């Protein structure tokens, strides 16, 4: 079973007889001419295959653990058995992505009112939406309560009390999961670890029974549904996940002794993807299979009913689908041997190298076979910071005017992008079956000033 998260390029990437990069059957050189650069290209088939890999893995895990009737089904939060894939919208969200979530029958993890609003506007079923966040505002919680049965993943006691008050005022009952801090650290960058004991996220493991008791004291407003844990992002290792399965199964046993059933078990997201040839992430299929099998066995061995299992992959669904196409501008060569090639984008459309020292892989979109292993070209961005380096020693002999393709930029590029230096965000096109559709239009100069207001007293002269 192929899982796109182990590949550098989208599943439809091929090289034409002219040595050009094709995605979704389209020549990226022509896409750059038609839509301009920088350009985010999203490959629909990569998303579809990633979702299938995750679902097939979940179903295989259930079978393997002897619980064959419970494969991955719809994300409707009503069903007690089975498993669902919630796409983590923070990786990449827009209206078209909401439609893809709907069309593929995924559930959705949202983390702000903006993500929730986008999802609802795109027609995502509120039943399949889960609202996260460590400091949800009243207005976010209200929107979730009013939208319908959105599930709130409650992060702490303060939030629970606010939700109780808001639900009572609005005469609604909130479905909730409790976010547990399991005290488990994955093998990833410190900034994107979340499961460690002193994390800002969640309720410490030891406090969860009391927290659930508190939920039970609010029967009019709060419906406790289950447990959630997310330990971090861009993790390559299964072991920390297997530990949280055991930790949460032990916790479920403890709750059972208190007379409380865990109906939903959400193990979060965080599976890594390949950004360079050296990266060997666990395939999405294997991750989902091992987690579902482990969960079924952990609950069976404790004589507990298996809850509805949820996974929340973001990066591993959308990351490999995205490729950024830049145009190379001026070059500089120094006696020291350093060679800089400036791209027409950089840290405003991809802040990950500057933020996490993230590594990427590049090719020349019109000369795909041009790879020089001893090449010392450093691809730098156009922004006013020395740290705006997209790839050091990129290994490609780029010349001014070339189109440079950077792979695996589908996740946390657009969603973390900015207007730094007052530049507009790039356009994004969705490609499939030799068709390209704009899903985010390029920001214009007018867009850049559309929020600006000038006080009257400054317009006197
Ligand atoms: N669930 C929860 C509760 C999360 O906080 C996250 C990510 C996910 C699921 C999805 O994780 P994924 O499968 O995408 O790794 N900006 C960083 C990543 C931050 C991830 C935040 N939470 C980056 O660019 O690497």
- Measured distance between first and last alpha carbons: 69 Å
The amount of helix comes to 25-40%
Biggest sheet overview: 9 strands, mixed
Relative strand content? 15-25%
Strand segment tally: 21
The distinct ligands, each listed once, are: ligand LLP
What is the 3D form? Answer: globular
Number of contiguous helices: 12
Which consecutive residue ranges, at least 5 long each, have pLDDT under 50?
74-80
| Coarse structural class | alpha/beta
Q: Radius of gyration over alpha carbons?
A: 23 Å
Mean pLDDT: 94
Q: Main traits of this protein?
A:
eight-stranded parallel barrel; 461 residues; alpha/beta; binds ligand LLP
Description:
The protein has 461 residues and is of the alpha/beta class. Helix content is 28%, strand content 21%. Strand 5 (83-88), helix 3 (95-103) and strand 6 (107-110) form a beta-alpha-beta unit. Helix 2 (44-64) runs parallel beside helix 9, helix 4 runs parallel beside helix 5 (138-147) and helix 8 packs parallel to helix 9 (284-301). It starts with 13 loop residues before the first strand and ends in a 12-residue tail after the last helix. It binds ligand LLP. Residues 88, 90-91, 109, 132, 192, 230, 233-234, 268-271, 312-316, 352, 356, 411-412, 416 line the site of ligand LLP.
């Amino acid at each position: 079973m192929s899982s796109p998260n182990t590949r550098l390029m989208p599943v439809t990437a091929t090289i034409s007889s002219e040595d050009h990069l094709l995605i979704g059957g389209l020549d990226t050189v022509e896409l750059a001419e038609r839509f301009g650069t920088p350009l985010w290209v999203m490959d629909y088939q990569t998303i579809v295959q990633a979702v299938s890999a995750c679902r097939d893995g979940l179903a295989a895990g259930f079978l393997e653990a002897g619980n064959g009737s419970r494969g991955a089904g719809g994300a409707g939060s009503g069903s007690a058995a089975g498993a669902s894939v919630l796409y983590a919208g923070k990786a990449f969200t827009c209206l078209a992505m909401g439609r893809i979530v709907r069309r593929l029958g995924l559930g959705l993890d949202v983390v702000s009112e903006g993500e929730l609003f986008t999802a609802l506007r795109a027609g995502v079923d509120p039943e399949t939406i889960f609202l996260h966040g460590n400091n949800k505002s009243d207005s976010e919680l209200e929107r979730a309560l009013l939208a319908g049965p959105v599930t709130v993943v409650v992060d702490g006691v303060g939030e629970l009390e606010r939700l109780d008050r808001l639900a009572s005022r609005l005469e609604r009952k909130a479905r909730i999961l409790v976010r547990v801090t399991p005290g488990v650290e994955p093998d990833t960058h410190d900034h994107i670890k979340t499961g460690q004991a002193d994390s800002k996220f969640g309720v410490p493991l030891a406090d969860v029974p009391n927290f659930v008791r508190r939920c039970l004291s609010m029967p009019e407003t709060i419906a406790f549904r289950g447990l959630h844990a997310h330990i971090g992002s861009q993790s390559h290792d299964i072991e920390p996940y297997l530990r949280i399965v055991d930790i949460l199964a032990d916790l479920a046993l403890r709750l059972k002794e208190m007379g409380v059933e865990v109906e939903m078990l959400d193990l979060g997201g965080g599976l890594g993807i390949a950004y360079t040839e050296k990266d060997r992430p666990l395939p999405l299929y294997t991750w989902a299979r091992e987690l579902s099998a482990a969960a079924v066995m952990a609950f069976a061995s404790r004589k507990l009913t298996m809850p509805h299992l949820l996974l929340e992959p973001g990066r591993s669904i959308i990351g490999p689908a995205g490729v950024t196409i830049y145009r190379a501008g001026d070059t500089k060569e120094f006696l020291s041997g350093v060679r800089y090639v400036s791209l027409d984008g950089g840290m405003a459309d991809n802040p990950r190298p500057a933020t996490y020292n993230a590594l990427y892989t590049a090719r020349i979109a019109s000369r795909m076979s041009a790879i020089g292993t001893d090449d010392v070209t450093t691809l730098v961005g156009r922004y006013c910071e020395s740290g705006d380096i997209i790839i050091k020693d990129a290994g490609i002999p780029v010349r001014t005017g070339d189109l440079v393709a950077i792979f695996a930029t589908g996740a946390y590029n657009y969603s973390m992008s900015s207007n730094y230096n007052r530049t507009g965000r790039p356009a994004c096109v969705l490609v499939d079956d030799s068709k390209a559709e704009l899903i985010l239009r390029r920001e214009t100069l007018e867009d850049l000033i559309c929020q600006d207001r000038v006080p009257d007293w400054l317009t006197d002269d």
